[in-house]
Amino acid sequence: MLRLGTEPKGLVAAGFATSAPFRDRHWDNEDKEALYIDIDFEVLLNPEKEPILTIEMLRLRTLLKEQNWHPQSSRSVRPELVTELEAVWFDFLTTQNIRHNPFIPTEQESQKTYSEGTPNQVSITKYERNPFARKACIDHYGFSCFVCEFNFETTYGPVGKGFIHVHHLMQVATVGETYSIDPVKDLRPVCPNCHSVIHKRKTPYSIDEVKGFMSNKH
User: Fold this and answer.
1) Structural domain boundaries in the chain
2) N or C: which end of the chain has fewer CB within 10 A?
3) Residue 216's pLDDT band (boundaries 50, 70, 90)?
4) Where are the alpha helices (DSSP H) in the chain?
5) Residue 139 CB: number of other CB atoms within 10 A?
6) Which tens digit of pLDDT belongs to each residue from 109-167?
7) 114 φ, ψ to 5°?
């Protein structure tokens, strides 16, 4: 979400669309309709109380200069700029004093894990959300599933280009309070089917185990 009109101008929010666009009564005129979409906000900054990613900061990046940061209406970010923008956004959030930051662990943000029936709480940083980590993993291994070698683009054509899940090899219960990911050592590209099988039990199956299931299926 881009804030315009009033300084400071820039990115103040990011999240995920949870609905298709739909029409409803215009917010300022009951005789008109407008397009809306439901959004699950992951980050929502208050420009009066905390820093935002300003347009000036965006324009310092060579690629992002090419985007129109003063649109008159809703506008998509150009596809070739998405990775760069996500990386800049991640870097901004992890270096600024943000009140509610999904990328930084807090005392309250812990994840329950279970080992041999005993509950343990481990706080982990969400480094797997770092677009640099995902990109580095895929740059090294490619877009084919590390288990079954399925490739979405080969099967579905252009609509499948660039689609793959990234699996984290390290179990949460085995790490310390915080840790940094090595994208080549700790991450693997896997298709959604194999990813589901890997996590079919409480202690995830290893990639080699799932490969074994496939070779022994007959």
Assistant:
1) 1-104, 105-218
2) C
3) confident
4) 55-58, 82-95, 131-141, 152-156, 183-186, 192-198, 207-215
5) 10
6) 333 333 333 333 333 344 445 666 778 889 999 999 999 999 999 999 998 888 888 88
7) -125, 130
For helices 131-141 and 82-95, the axis angle rounded to 10 degrees is 140
The answer to whether the Cα torsion of 210, 212, 215, 218 is positive or negative is negative
How many Å apart are CA 18 and CA 45, to the nearest integer?
20
Query: Tokens at residue 11, please?
Result: 């990115």
pLDDT at 121: 36
Residue range 167-181, pLDDT digits in tens:
888 764 455 444 566
- Asked if 82 and 67 touch (Cβ cutoff 8 Å), the reply is no
- Which pTM does this prediction carry? 0.51
Task: Find out whether 1 and 12 touch, Cβ atoms under 8 Å.
Answer: yes
